[in-house]
Write a structure and sequence with these properties.
The chain is an alpha/beta fold. It has a single domain, classed as Response regulator (Rossmann fold, 3-Layer(aba) Sandwich). The chain has 5 helices and 5 strands; from the N terminus they run βαβαβαβαβα. The chain has a 5-stranded parallel beta sheet with strand order 2-1-3-4-5, sandwiched between helices. β4, α4 and β5 form a beta-alpha-beta unit. The two termini are 14 Å apart.
Length: 126
């Protein structure tokens, strides 16, 4: 069981990601619709895995990633973005993103990256 935070200003995008996460595995899920709320929830919840959109009205996802990785270096961030520019991808990787998924995400890709992230978490506790 993992704590998972889904951050996206689009409720449809959040619902899409949430719908891909298996309900029978007992994961604790939380959602944030903007950067400020994401940071607040993250600091309270300390999620194991965060699905993070990059383009939001109040804060860019890369700024959120940079801020939170400083205080939570073990946290796993899976970036969700329609921004496929090489520069953006490289910056996300430099800041410690676990992976980058293009939007709109495909269920199989969400499940695959979630599985990889859960394996990393499981390796830490064993």
């Amino acid at each position: 069981m993992a704590k998972i935070l889904i951050v996206d200003d689009s409720i449809v995008a959040r619902m899409s990601v949430k719908g891909c996460i298996p309900k029978d595995q007992g994961h604790a899920l939380a959602e944030a619709g903007n950067g400020a709320t994401a940071i607040e929830i993250f600091r309270t919840m300390s999620p194991d895995i965060t699905f993070l959109d990059l383009t939001m009205p109040d804060r860019h996802g890369l700024d959120i990633l940079e801020e939170l990785r400083q205080d939570f270096p073990e946290a796993i961030f899976i970036i969700l973005s329609a921004d496929t520019q090489k520069q953006t991808r490289e910056r996300a990787e430099q800041l410690g993103a676990f992976s980058i998924i293009g939007k709109p995400p495909v269920k199989e890709t969400i499940l695959s990256e979630l599985s990889r992230a859960l394996a990393v978490i499981g390796g830490r506790t064993s």
